[in-house]
Each structure stands twice: as structure tokens, then as C-alpha cells.
């Protein structure tokens, strides 16, 4: 099928992109790495979009430290996330997640901002963002807005970002000494979206668990977190079964995904030396 | 003079060596020419409105809006095309009782599967045509659907084609001996049910056709990504009422076929019909989504099987009931009954036993059409056979290798006819099994498996012996009335400088046909392979032949090439002998030089022969034959098929908590007769194994009960990818066929035939101690956990 678009413009700066978005009157669509959007266009699931290509906006690419937060620009590519020393040191969860995202060719183009904005419930970064208690930074016509990751993901491909806003960056609290980050997933083939996955951060003896492919959005698993804080692994696995809310498709049933989540949690507990 | 194949130091010894592929450089340099690369003057594009319903009556078709869209040139319905194109029926006369209704390029009254082409829209670009197609409105009145295989013949299941009376396309039972008595009396009877999922070929290059109709010449030219150009030539000629000699089918580079591109497709015939009506070139390029609903599907078998054994573990008989759903029409012209038919022939193929029963029931359903795909029927039959053999071994406490040793046909027992009626010329099951056991160090692997089991690591070893049907004679299609050629031909021409052009009816799909033909012709004539240019896939110039299917290229086309090359050599030597006042029999051609055969002394360059024949023929004796262009055709006649054999082994680790299977290693020992190019054979086997692993672990086209397809993109139809593939160790035994001088049989399907059974048996070997087994492919992690009882809801 041939993609059908309404137009294409290359944005030079964030403010340029914002004014293009405003001009497009709701039909504007940001094009970052194109690794989800181009596929959607070719499948005909979206058409007539006015594409606003933000890939060349240098200011949105790369990681920097800002106080006790690591700020990662939206256009930082998956391949950069995997190799950037700042990210490896201060947000190791993301560095560990990046190699699980797709394949080399896709990692060379796809961006963390695109992944967060797209909000595929099976994607790794959104669950990491929740586990890390990260903040999503949005730029809009009225300035900058910061939204806690937990409040950002609203449902299937649905976020708190308004149509006229750009996701500019993700801000992650810098990992403290002794902080542990683990991500595990079960995917049929390397590079596939996971059938189930968990991203876990242990900070000051407390756990935060972000689940992916286990609901209509990344889920913070509060029941399992509390049990894990208490060293109760069986309790955590039991609680996890109700924290998550998976659906069935041709790849896996909800029952199987729920089972996998429990297996992954036990393995993560061993990784973390809990229990 | 015969070729001493056993002497690797013989002159011109190209047959049997790994030589580089002549077309590889061009392809990696990006200079391939696939059909979609071709643009002709006045070319237009066609896109299809396809049925969104599995079964629906077609009412009014509103095309007005599409026709007025800018860029749209014309819109065609089924009735429009029926005026210039006759319908077809995929039937073979020797398949008694077979039924299938007429099929048109575009559906007329009813659409019978999701994806069936209903309306064709022609535009200046593909995008224009698609935009037009989106504006066509078809009134569909949904009809009851048939989707389940096993209930297709039940009285309360709707009949898909009323005129046929029921949903049975074809049924055949193959029976020998006293099956009921033997099974009643046997020491041991083991039973299991099996499923092979519906899957498809997923060629890298989708189907593409570009047809031009030159009304002035009354000639049609079709550039098409296809495996059987001469077959398509005749069918286009027949259905569009053109003399066969005025249809030219050109198959340039083809990006994979696997059987997908050996059939007649409604969208491709529609494209040809439209070209004839519009008198201009029309291109249709299937996209990936169309491929999943438009390309043929395959397998989709459900079977129950039993094996009977005596106390000593000797196999007494097999009893199998196979069912397969083939969609709403039998494929044209090969029919969709052949996969089931193969199952009735191939069950138990490697073993000695006297009592046999296998019935196949081929039923219609409202899903995509199933047809021949790499290793037709073999993976199904091998999975059933080897699944039963391994289960019997486990229940009787006999090592699976040992049980096979007791039952495989002895290597010195040939020729023989099996209980299923197969005539076998010469196979090497025991030598192959011995080579496998050695290659995998079976005992050590068993010890490792045992040691790891104690640590809670569940590994399994699976074995699968198999036979593969290759080099088919007209017994496969010709006797059924299909105009599908089992013979093949080759023309070899020496040019004045002594280089050689060879035209063959076999086609190149990326598998290396051109490489092996160059080797064969080079050795036959006595020149280096670099001096041989192979031409394939153009019905205007290549000898009439069958093309590429059923692993026939090397064995049949290769022999024709050998004989044509030898004939040119003979002519060149006759001329040289006359010029040199020598006897032709005392001379030889080596690396392009005429030499004294006994001493190797150089006498004359081939270019000198060429110069004299083509430019100074006056200096040769009048009447001296000087035909430096020779054509030979070859057909097998002693045996209906040249069977090959082999055995595969798979070593896996099952994560019994997640159900995930890790493929650790895979072995295949295979006997395809004379090996022409070892590297190409190894890669055929490897590629085939990968497709077999796809069947075992990944590939499944899912339909719901309403006949809606649930997957159908590369994201949810999982093809096997390199990351999950194991190392594969390939070994060979060579038992050449005596039907031909070359002695080659086929090697294209062996990997696919045996791999699913080997992987299945390995998984079951791993999980058997936990009390589970899997026989329904693909073995997804979830299915494995369900078999283990871990997941129940
Ligand atoms: C074969 C394949 C396998 C994949 N496997 C995985 C996987 O395992 N895990 C995984 O997480 N992902 C996977 N992906 C998706 C990949 O990670 C994408 O790169 C990512 O989801 C989107 O990032 P992008 O930069 O390519 O965004 P684009 O495709 O350009 O855009 C995606 C969407 O986000 C919007 N958008 C992009 N950037 C912004 C922004 N800065 N502000 C606001 N909106 C924006 C776009 O408008 C669009 O709607 C896979 C993709 C493919 C093709």
C-alpha cells in the first residue's frame, strides 16, 4: 500500500516545529525516527498527515546532567541510549533496555522521544520511565510542562501530550550509589516486542516495577512492589497477577502473559538477591 | 567417453566443486533486474479491490466515483474480464473424484475468501490505482462460512459451492496388507494426533507481473516473477486465446519462490487480461499485506496416526487419517490435492513394514487457497511418522536411534517397492544414520543431557529420518492432463572465440541454477565456467521445459545440459580432428584447448575451431558436420520419481517455566545423489532447515471462526530469523541415480521435510520426563506450557 500524506516540512528548531504544528490545525504529525510512523503510514492506519520532520533539531538530541537529574533529549536514538556513558552511569535501566528494542537498523534511527510519545504498551522505555519515576518534559505554545511518567501514559497509544505539544525530553533522577536497575522480558525472537516484560528499580531499599506488554499502557505494579519491599517474593508474584491486566492476541493469551510476568519477577528477585 | 566422477583430478573437473556463482556479483552490486525494476513506455498500474468477507454474495458494484478520479484510467469487474478470459479449474484427471468449481480472474457472483480480488482499478501510478480502489463500492451480502477442517463434511455445515454437493474436494486412501488385524493383535500400538499450521512462503520479492500486449504483432509479453515460465506461457495463451508461440514469458531475476510462484493467480491473469484489453503495458506488484492474503498458503493439516510394533520393536504398520483444508478453490493447474496425496504416499517412507493405511480428506473452506510450497506434504508426513516412531521408542524404552536401526530399509535392499507403493532405486538410510550419530557424537550428547537434567536443565534430542521426492516424471502432473512439462532441455552454443552460451528451461530463483548449469556445461564442453554464459527464464529462446519445482533442476535440467554440452564437444572435436588429420576419439578439450587425450599435448585452441567453422567453412570438407549449437532434452523414465533420503537431528533446551525453546544445534545428513556444487547443496539444506524450523516454532496464519485473518504482517506472522537459528552441521552420502549420466537427484526440499519433526521430537524428548508432549505446530511457548499443564485456563 502506498503511504498517503498531506505534506512534509522540515522543522529547524523547536519553536519552528511548534508553529508548524499550530498551522497544521490538528493534522500535524511529528516525524522523528520514523520507525513506527512510517510503518503506520504504509499500513494505511494513518493518512493525510502534515508531516513535521523534527529529526534535524540538534537541541533535542543527547543527554546532559541538570542538578540531580539526567535530561535525555527526545531525539536521542536507541543506539545512543545503549552507548552513551552518561546514561550508562546515571540511568543504567535505559542503557539495558535499549538493546532489547528492535534491531540495529531500527535502533540507529528510532528515538526515545518517539517511543515515549507513541506509547506502545509493549515498548520498553515507557515502563522504564515509570520504574525510574521519570518526568516527561513537553514544549507547547504556552511554554514548558513537566508531567510525571506515571501520569503521562493514559492508555493504548494515548498520552497526556496535547496535539500542539512536542515531547522534548525525559528527565530521570540520577541513580544513587547502590541503586539497582534490572529489566527482563520474554520475546519470541530477538528484537520483537515483548510478550511480557518488567523493568525494576531498587532505590533506598524500595522497589518500583514498571510492567510492559501486560496492559493497555505501562503499569506501575504497586501490589508487587510493596510485597517485594518486604522480601515476600511469593506475595509479590501473587500481587503482580492482579497489578497487571494483559489482553490476548495471536501471540499469547492473557493467562500466559500473566504467568510470564510472575516468572520474570522471580528471576528479577534472584538478580536483585531478594528473598 | 564417460566422465570419471570419482576422480577429482580428472580434466575439467568442475562438477562436484564449490565454484563461485556467476550471478552473485551482479546481485550484490545492485544490478539485479527484478520485474518491479522494469518500466515500459505507456505503462500503467493495477490495484485490486479485495473481498473483506470470507464468503459473500456480490451485489451492485459502484465504480463511477473511482472512474472520475484523476489518475484513474479504467475500472474492471469480473464480468468485464470474463469476456476476454476463460475460467479455469484446478483438476487432474488421475485424481479420481476430484471436484473444484470454475475460477475467474475476478470474482463474479461470490467472494470466497478474505483477499479474493473482486474489482481491478487501473491508474497512472500504483498510488492512483489504490486511491481509485478505495472509492469503489461493492455491495457484499455475507454468506455462511466454512472454516473448520474436521466438521467441513458434517451434514449441518453449509456447503460452500452448492453445485458440488458437499465440501469434499478430494479423498484418497492408500491401503496395503491387513491393517485392522495387525493393529488388533500387535504387541504395541501407539497413537497421536498432529497438526501442521497453515503458513505461507514469504518470498523476499513479492509476486510481480508486467504484461504488454502488442496488438500489431498479436503478441503478449509477460515479465513475471515466476518459477515455471513455459507453463505460464501456455496458460496465458489458452485462457486469453492467443497462439502459444505468441506469448512470451520472461522471468529475469526472481527473489525467492519456494513454490509460491508456480501457480496461476487471479490477480496476475487479470493483469494480463487488462493489458490485452487496454493494449498497453500493465504492472501489478503485490505488496506485503496482499501477499499474506493473496499468495498461496500451505500445510494446514490435522491428522491422527497409529503405529504398530512387535515385541522386538519391529514396525508392523502405520494407520493414518489425514485431513486438510485448502480454501475455496483447488489451485490451478497443479491442484491443491497434491499435499494430501503426498502424505498418503510418504508416511513411513524410510521403514520396512507390510501393513499400511493412509487416507487424506481434502476439504474446501473460506480461507486462502492452499497449494504446493517447498517440500509439499513431506513435513506433514515426516512429522506424523517420526512423531509416532519416537513416541513408540519412548514407550517401549528403546533408544530412538536403535529403534530406527532396527526398522530402516537396509542399504542393500534396493530396488524395491514400499508398502505405500513407492518405487525406490537406491537409498542410504543406514549409512546416513551412522554418519549422523558420528557427526553429533550421540552418546556424549546423551550423557550431557542426563547430567544437565539433574541440574534442572531440560534438553532434548530429536531425530527424523525422511525420504524426499525429486526429479518427477509425467506421473506427477502430465498424466493428469496438466500442461506441465516434466522433461527439460538445454541448448549449448559455442561462439567463435570458444566461449559458450547455454540456454536452459530451468529457472533461477536465487538458488544457484545458473552456477550449477555453468559447471555442468563447462565440464561437458571442456572450458572453464567463466567461459560459460547461462540464459534462463525466457520462453522465446530457452528450450521448452518445466522450470523450477519438486527439486528437478539439477537432476533433469542438469542432465540435459550435460548431454547438450557433450554434443557440442563432440562436434568441435570432429571439426578439430578433420583440421588436425587426427581421430576425434584421440582428442580431448581441456580448458578451452583441443589436446591429445593420451598425452595432454596442446594441439589447437577452441577459438581456432570457431574461427574456421564460422568464417572459413570453405576450408573444411564438404558435408562435415559442424553444428556448434546443440540441444538436448531429458526425461526420467525408469522411475516415476527419484527419491532421496536423509536424517536430521535437533538439540534443544526448553525453559520449562516460560515454555521458550532454545535451538542449540541442528544436524543433517543427506543423500541427493551426485553433488554438483557442495556449497550450494549445503546452503539449500540450511535454508530448508530454517523454513522447517519456521514451521515447527514460529509460522502460523491465524483465522477466526468467521474466516477473518487475524495476522498478516511481518510483525505478527513470525518468520524464523537468524538470531534464533542454531549452528547446522551438514554431511552427505552420495548414491547417484542410474537414470542419468550425471546421477544428480534433488536437494531443495530435504531440509524443510525433516526439520519440523526433528525439532518436535527434541522438544518432546526434553519435556517427556515432566509428563507432557506437543504435536500441534507451531510449538509456541504457550502451547508447550499448556502441554506441561502449567497454564490451564
Ligand atoms: C521491526 C520493529 C521492531 C520494533 N521493536 C520494538 C521493540 O521491541 N520495543 C520498542 O519499544 N519499540 C520497538 N519498535 C518501535 C521503535 O522503537 C520506534 O523507533 C519507536 O517506537 C518510535 O520512535 P521514532 O523516533 O521512530 O518515532 P516515529 O516513528 O517518528 O514517531 C512515532 C510517533 O510518535 C510521535 N512522535 C515522535 N517523536 C515525537 C516527539 N518528540 N514529540 C511528540 N511526538 C513525537 C510521532 O508523531 C508518531 O506519532 C520496533 C519497530 C520496528 C519497525
From TrEMBL, chain A:
UniProt-recorded Gene Ontology molecular function terms: FAD binding; oxidoreductase activity
PROSITE patterns: FAD_PCMH
Keyword annotations from UniProtKB, A to Z: FAD, Flavoprotein, Oxidoreductase
Domain FAD-binding PCMH-type: 1-177
Alphabetized InterPro entries for the sequence: CO_DH_flav_C, CO_DH_flav_C_dom_sf, Diverse_Substr_Oxidored, FAD-bd_PCMH, FAD-bd_PCMH-like_sf, FAD-bd_PCMH_sub1, FAD-bd_PCMH_sub2, Mopterin_DH_FAD-bd
Keyword 4Fe-4S: no
Top-level taxon of origin: Bacteria
Pfam families in alphabetical order: CO_deh_flav_C (PF03450), FAD_binding_5 (PF00941)
Listed name of the protein: Xanthine dehydrogenase family protein subunit M
Lineage: Bacteria, Pseudomonadati, Pseudomonadota, Alphaproteobacteria, Hyphomicrobiales
UniProtKB/TrEMBL annotation, chain B:
Top-level taxonomic group: Bacteria
Coiled-coil segments on the chain, per record: none
Oxidoreductase among keywords: yes
Domain Aldehyde oxidase/xanthine dehydrogenase a/b hammerhead: 29-144
Keyword Signal: no
UniProt-recorded Gene Ontology molecular function terms: iron ion binding; oxidoreductase activity
One Pfam assignment: MoCoBD_1
Keyword tags: Molybdenum, Oxidoreductase
PANTHER family, A to Z: ALDEHYDE OXIDASE 1-RELATED (PTHR11908:SF132), XANTHINE DEHYDROGENASE (PTHR11908)
The protein's name: Molybdopterin-dependent oxidoreductase
Native organism: Jiella pacifica
Organism classification: Bacteria, Pseudomonadati, Pseudomonadota, Alphaproteobacteria, Hyphomicrobiales
